[in-house]
Amino acid sequence: MSDLLAGPVEAAAGLSVHGADTVDKSAPASTRDALVSAGVPGRLAEKDPTLWGSDAEAEAKVRLGWVDTHLRSRELLPQLAELKAELGDLDHVVLAGMGGSSLAPEVIARTLGRQLTVLDTTDPGQVRAALADRLERTVVVVASKSGSTVETDSHRRAYRQAFLDAGMTEAEAGRHFVIVTDPGSPLEATAAEMGAFCVLADPNVGGRYSALTAFGLVPSALAGVDVAALLDEADALAASLGGDRDNPALALGAALGAAATMGRDKIALVSDGTGIDGLGDWAEQLIAESTGKAGVGILPVVVESPGSPGATGDDVLTVTYGGALAAGAVPGGGTDADVAVNGPLGAQFLTWEYATAIAGVVLGIDPFNQPNVTESKENTNKILASGPPAETPSFTEGAIEVYAPQGAPGDLAGVLRWLVDGLDEGGYLAVMAYLDRFADADAARLRPLLAEAAGRPVTFGWGPRFLHSTGQYHKGGPQVGSYLQLTGAAETDLPVPEKPYTFGELQAAQAAGDRQALAGRERPLLRLHLTDRSAGVAQLLDAVGTLRA
Fold first, then answer.
1. Would you give the distance in Å from CA 40 to the centre of its chain?
2. How far apart are CA 329 and CA 129, in angstroms?
């Protein structure tokens, strides 16, 4: 029997947390006891906006709806049933959304075995492939809390034009859209103009906490998920949130906070293989964007499997997650996990949201704002208006143009070794791939290879998707990161209808805007541009492979 199974467990409503007590007791003083003494569990369950200090109070007042949004979301169930019946002939569901508007539905669909095409990219090849897939049977869920997300607006425009080009009338094209947004957003008015269905979300829930609002439920329901079951699972857990004991979400949050204050400020997220698929990607955004600010934060590192490099480390808290424990199963799925979280998906969402808010109390930060996310957006807009900055590669090797700081080595393997060897003690490497996450999927193999070579935490994010998650941490969290940005030539570009730029130009501007934001922080940054994507990825994998020798 593993140490995790033998140790204390905290459980409620079918969700169990193993190992959190051990992490908490390893601190000089119990973080959990301090939270309980301050009445934090009950105050959070009652949505007390003063928990994170006076500077955060105004934001918290309008962002704590997630605590009980699962109750209000039941009001959506009749509307969702009617919507699914009305659109019964449209069986290909595409979700156009970013960050919190896309990650939860993707986890839900993957875990419950339903088909959902998630479009959270500006890569022209990936957008073009989506547009070519079963267009006449497609319903596009356009999801944006603000109603002004540039990626989502571009997807809406591209699909509308594709429907019209296929011979549909304006009214027929409008029927192929379902808009999910906050009341009063610009997108609500756009839905009316298009003749599209519109579902309004809970305005008192921030995007990354919105899994159990319309943002998570509408696309999932259209894909055939029994979303009422998710709400039932969350509701069953909710009764434990105010308690000082038998509160697994409190145990997890206290462990996250205690570990971070003791220098274990990276959290490896590893699936234990027991039925929940992709929760790490959702939790990555939740934790990184909520905690990475004011020079502090917890860096989530999504690890492919228990045996993959980077799952453990002196400054890493290893947390596994899963859906159901078989008899005699080992929490952690075979890795040396510190904490294991196991239970139904609806309860998992609420547990991680609560735990992240608790970690914010411990770290003394506002878990509901994202002060640095707009920086890259503003840079992108300036570049789209004025044109991309002139850049000359340091050198070209095969299918890769290398843009490196002055003084870096003049060969690919050498410059990669320079980047890896230059990682700070306590630092991390972030791989940021502005590529097609399906056609260029092999690029993700770089993460474990680099983690093995570096012996340090390595994250991997698809751009611009990661800008809505770890992008906040990169700029607002501890400034110990090093960055490898991958861009690639597009074989065929795609215009954004009624805009003066293409998807390829938007993608390039987003990458350049993010480079500018990172360069302003004087952190190590290496850009590799793949002039031929397939050949470039293969060449890069070979070069990284030599670093392990």
1. 27
2. 41
1 confidence band (pLDDT: 50, 70, 90): very low
Is the CB of residue 161 less than 8 Å from the CB of residue 177? Answer: no
Structure-token pair, residue 423? 């990682």
CB count, 10 Å around CB of 391? Answer: 12
How far apart are the C-alpha atoms of 330 and 340, rounded to whole Å?
9
- For residues 131 and 443, the answer to whether their CB atoms sit within 8 Å is no
Adjacent-strand bridge partners of 138: 92
- Other CB atoms within a 10 A radius of the CB of residue 170 amount to 12
Per the DSSP assignment, residues forming a β-bridge with 160 are none
Q: Please say whether the beta carbons of 544 and 446 come within 8 A.
A: yes
List all residues 6 or more positions away from 498 whose beta carbon is below 8 Å from its beta carbon: 157
| pLDDT on residue 23 | 97
pLDDT tens digits for 377-431? Answer: 899 999 999 988 899 999 999 999 999 999 999 999 999 999 999 999 999 999 9
Residues in the chain: 549
Q: Using alpha carbons only, give the angle 420, 421, 427 rounded to the nearest 5 degrees.
A: 70
**Phi, psi dihedrals of residue 3, rounded to the nearest 5°:** -60, -35
The number of beta carbons lying within 10 Å of the beta carbon of residue 223 is 24
- Enumerate the β-bridge partners of residue 268: 301, 318
Three-class SS of residue 542?
helix
Q: Mean pLDDT across the chain, nearest whole number?
A: 95
Continuous H helices in 169-271: 170-175, 186-194, 214-222, 227-238, 248-261
DSSP H/E element including 474: helix 470-476
Report d(CA 347, CA 195) in Å as an integer. 36
Domain 69-233 bears CATH identifier 2.60.40.420: no
Q: Using one digit for the tens of pLDDT, what is the confidence trace for 86-116?
A: 999 999 999 999 998 999 999 999 999 999 9
Domain 373-546 has CATH 3.40.50.300: no
Predicted pLDDT at 57: 97
Pick from 533, 488, 486, 528: nearest CA to 397: 528
CATH 3.40.50.10490 positions along the chain are: 69-233, 373-546
Instruction: Please list, in sequence order, all residues whose beta carbon lies within 8 angstroms of the beta carbon of residue 193, skipping any fewer than 6 positions away.
Output: none
Q: Which residue has the tokens 């029994």?
A: 226
DSSP 288-330: HHHH-BTTB--EEEEESSTTSTTS--TTEEEEEEES-PPTT--
Q: How is 76-139 classified by DSSP, letter by letter? A: GHHHHHHHHHHTTT--EEEEE--GGGTHHHHHHHHHHT---EEE----HHHHHHHHTSSGGGEE
Task: Record the tokens describing residue 344, joined without a space.
Answer: 């139904």
Tokens at 421, concatenated: 């060897």
Task: Give the 3-state secondary structure of residue 527.
Answer: strand
- pTM as predicted: 0.97
- Confirm if 420 and 547 have CB atoms less than 8 A apart: yes
Two structure tokens written together for 150: 């540039």
